[in-house]
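Lab notes, practical 5.
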Amino acid sequence: MTTETRDPILVVIQLTGGNDYVNTIVPYANSAYYDNRANLSVPAEQVLPINDEFGFNPALAPLKEMYDQGKVAVINGIGYPNPNRSHFRSMDIWHTCEPDKIGDQGWLGRVIRDIDPNHENVLTGVNFGRGLPRAMALTGVPVASVAMLESYGILTGIQGEPDRSEALDLFTKMYGPMIGTGPVMDYIGQTGLDALKGADILKTAPAKYVSDVEYADSSIGRNLQGIAKVLVAGLGTKVFYTMHGGYDTHANQAAFHPHLLNELSQAISDFYDDLREHEVADNVLIFAFTEFGRRVKDNGSGTDHGAGGVAFAIGDGVKGGTYSEFPSLRAADLIEGDLQFNIDFRGVYGSIVEHWLGLDPVPVVGGQFEQLAFV
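Output from the prediction step:
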């Protein structure tokens, strides 16, 4: 795990929309890639080589630099059996580890439950973004969801401090009597009290943060900087989550996809530099994933929903390199034009849960799956 006594921290980045695998990790020595990507291929001379066969998209230069430092694991061919091309269903599968039925428990909700079984810290899990990701949802497990840290709180529209304090006191009294009146009311009441407590704690984080790192201006950069502020404040958060959207590139992919990859790569690099400046980088693992890859053959201006994808594990505790096999691009090896997956995502989750977080992976991912030694 880590070389320090500090607890390990996991930061999950969801690339929403289905990131195009073969234009992210480019098989630049394979003629089948160029045959299938007549309109969208990355020229071989522009690829940032990993080896003689594959390399990073040039938009991922900051991530490639971290890879060269041994801090990035590229996880090839990640997926699950009988892949689903629906955004909602596929992401639901990734969130709950339930490919064969509709799950009602998020895998990170289970992680948070196992890290803090007695609910001692309402901020063990924090999401940066609107709404609560399904991955973190589990009845009885508190998770704070923050759109913007500086304005996060309850009843922030009331400006006068005496009036706001009085309103918050009434808010607390409203939830308190619900406890002990039945399971549904217990849940509603406890959730309300947890939200109040979490808001009070989180609002202290910005004042504790000073950094010389200037993040590039992007939504993912702002969210990762928000995570850095909470992490540096030492509030006991062990699991962070955020999303980077826009990867559903059916059209105009040549313009949009490199921009997204550059935003992501630069934000991760800035975030890592920020953690290093604050001497907290050694016990943080970043995991970036997407719900599926894209079709091998382009559609003229973009790519359609596919299967088989790539994930990244990033940090000081990562054993850098490439893991699992890059799927074959041979027509005979494709499934209805899609890549075969080579490693079940639940085994990758299990690797993180067991070897980074020190927890039993079986109840988290729903069974035993092949793991990878990237941590």
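Observations recorded by the TA: Residues 253-277 form the longest helix (25 residues). The first strand starts at residue 9 and ends at 15.
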